[in-house]
Amino acid sequence: MTTAVGPPDTVTEERTAPRRLPFWVNQRLGLLLLVIALSVLFGALRPAFLDQRLVLFPLLRDVATLTVVALAQMVALSVGHMNLAVGRMAAFGAMFAGLGYDRLGVPMQVGLPVPGLAAGAAAGAVTGWLIARTGVSSFVVTLAMDFALLGLVSLLYSALTDDAAFTTHPSGIDALRSYSLADICAGPICGSPAVPQIAQCTVLAMLGLGFLYGSTRIGRELLLTGANPAAAELSGIPTGRRILLAHTLSGLLAALAGFMAAAGTGTFRASIGDDFMLPSFLGAVLGGTLLTGGVVSVLGTLLGTALLGENGAGKSTLLKVLTGVHSPDGGTLTWCGQQVQLRSPLEATRTGIGVVHQERNLIPGFSVAENITLQNPPSHRGLIDREAMTAPALACLAELGVELDPRQLVRELSVAQQQLVETAKALHTQSRVLLLDEPTASLSPQEAERLFEVIRRLAGRGACVVFVSHKLEEVFAVCDTVTVLRDGKSVLESAPLADHTHDDIVGLMVGRAHTATELRPRTVDRSAAPTLVLEAVSTAGGHRDISLEVRPGEIVGLYGLVGAGRSELVKSVLGLDRITGGEVRVHGAPARITSPRQALHEFGIGYVTENRKEEGVFLEQPVVRNITVTVWKRLARALGFVSAREERDTAQDLVDRLGIRISGLQQNAGELSGGNQQKVSLAKWLAADTKLLVIDEPTVGVDVRTKRAFHELIWDLAAGGLPILLISSDLAEMVTLADRIVVMTDHRVRGEIDNDRDYDRVSGRVIRLIHDRDAVCSRGAWPR
């Protein structure tokens, strides 16, 4: 396969920040606000403009009401949910407002909707509580709430007198006797009795939500909960409370819209809200983001070759061009002697090009077998045959030497297991060209070696393999030729790998000669009181009798194969899984941690997750929010207001400190390369000034220079007294950094090794511990 993609001067995988559009263009609801604001202005200048006899008055009234309906839906959507009960909540609130007017004799015009607003907020709170506590889909919960409220609305409606018309005033409500329908819909604000209170309520609601989401800690947390719930929870955001708050606000706004609709028609009716569903979704479409892409220049034959380069060099972008995700701006792509143009990934697959992307593209809710056979599922009489999926899935897994239940859901697998399923998925397509983008990033050396055996067999059958990796020792082990990219251009094309040394390749990648990492001397005070102690800890995830200690300034490594339970153990300590036995002590005191939020704010524990895409960063949120999410509570002032200047200063300091390559703080994290996303994931914990840092696979998918920078940073953090618990599947990295290495297999500790940083000696001890089933696990007998 040859490529000739042609020659822009400079391109990187780092995309520039999207150009910010004016508010009125970018935010569709801004157009509605503009209509309302202009109407208020004209009404203040010329009261006759809003006379009820004109068509504009009811039009403005309806637009204002539907705008509030859209806001109610938008608040629910901000946490990633939908509110199918928005119309019925409006009717529910209107009925309660009617009871307050008709039966309770509410004496003030302003107090008239209060019972209705309280009822709507209560309905929303119940909805949010059910979603947060049960984990049931918002679609199901709100649909059930819609039917429940339908029955309640019918009961309330039957209790009203004569439809509770506004023009019928029960005795004793003297304050309302002087108000007609026109008076209720038009209040004395800005000296103009012709400005509708409905419009005033809408403007106030929009301004209030704008302040909430744009300037307060809670509003930011609502948005991040919707953007990535897992990352939000691990960042210390109380996602359950935020879901509850969002649905409470949604119900309150829906009830306000219901009262406004009743005021507009002059009567409380049970049919209020029947036509609110479509406007509630249409109004919440808030515009989009300008996407900018890039192209790379590569000329040569990609056949059994390594494709190398730093983060941002253009490797992943090139693979996306070869698989139809992006279209090249120039040049040609030749397949089997004929020029082709791949318009989609499906077309590339049918052509015979398979790919294992660095970021996994699996469907979490599907089983292992369904994901593996996704491109070509077996069928019988036009229907998917799920039973027939098992055999080909097991065959692909067996070829990789992996034992997994093909019926297990992908969401239940570890990151490394998901990576192996992604590879098995590519094998199932029987591709003639296989593109592997960091396929061993989350694998142990033993699992990687099994993958290499598969690669060698495929190459022996005539398949072309393009291997992208930052682990040069793997490249030299399995590849014949090498192509190196730097800044979007090729600096070495299809050259025999045997003609180049390790330092030659690194020099081509970074543009200068490679220098070995030199870490300054660092000592650990073994007599210091441990910051973290696990004593005979057992968990609901299957851990038994886990004991370890981490002291100030010490790097303790957790090493093991896939399924050893290292990440799961850490998540139990953070409160994401139940600890069933033993004791956890933090700073010398027993700790019962029930959530990552408590771990961060009460105990100062930070967690850099191994799965940055799904748990580490908010891809569709700016870099500044990704970094400062852990310190909003500290930055917040009165009413939860967060100073944008302080937020920018905090983020910029860490961007400069870590050397994060961005075009601006408002650039979305999803537009950064993997290495820079990992730096952003780390930066939020440094911003929080954590007292104990857990780092899970810190250099997965990053280039040699970034890896070296990470190693130096971790080393310096420990030298400054920060205790670090390090999880890594890279044994060389573990030997480089860890002071002690705790080896785990099958959710148990097999032993502990004092690290003298002699790789051959230490790695041999680690491997023997992993495979020696007779190893003694009691602390006193751990091998040293």
Can you walk me through this structure?
The protein is of the alpha/beta class and 784 residues long. 45% of the residues lie in helices and 13% in strands. It contains 31 helices and 22 strands. Strand 13 (532-539) and strand 14 (546-550) form a beta hairpin. Helix 2 packs across helix 9 (197-215) and helix 17 (390-399) crosses helix 18 (415-428). The protein is globular, with a radius of gyration of 31 Å.
Strand order of the largest sheet: 6-9-10-3-11-12
Shape: globular
Described by strand count, sense and barrel closure, the largest sheet is:
6 strands, mixed
Helix content: 40-55%
Proportion of beta-strand residues: 5-15%
Average pLDDT rating: 76
Overall structural class, as computed from helix and strand content, comes to alpha/beta
Report, as a whole number of angstroms, the end-to-end distance.
52 Å
Q: What's the gyration radius in Å?
A: 31 Å
Which regions contain 5 or more consecutive residues with pLDDT less than 50? 1-28, 166-195, 286-304, 773-784
Strand tally is 22
How many DSSP H or I helices? 31
Can you lay out the helices and strands and say which pair or pack?
Elements: E1 2-5, H1 23-26, H2 29-45, H3 56-77, H4 86-102, H5 114-134, H6 138-159, H7 174-177, H8 181-185, H9 197-215, H10 217-227, H11 229-234, H12 239-265, H13 277-282, E2 298-301, E3 305-308, H14 315-322, E4 332-335, E5 338-340, H15 345-351, E6 353-356, H16 368-372, E7 379-380, E8 383-384, H17 390-399, H18 415-428, E9 433-437, H19 445-460, E10 464-468, H20 472-478, E11 481-486, E12 489-496, H21 502-510, E13 532-539, E14 546-550, E15 555-559, H22 566-573, E16 579-586, E17 589-590, H23 596-603, E18 605-608, H24 612-616, H25 623-628, H26 632-635, H27 644-658, H28 674-687, E19 692-696, H29 704-719, E20 724-727, H30 731-737, E21 740-745, E22 748-754, H31 759-771
Parallel strand pairs: 3-10, 3-11, 6-9, 9-10, 15-20, 15-21, 18-19, 19-20
Antiparallel strand pairs: 1-2, 1-4, 4-5, 7-8, 11-12, 13-14, 13-16, 16-17, 21-22
Helix pairs in contact: 2-3, 2-9, 3-9, 3-12, 4-5, 4-6, 4-12, 5-6, 5-12, 9-10, 10-12, 17-18, 27-28
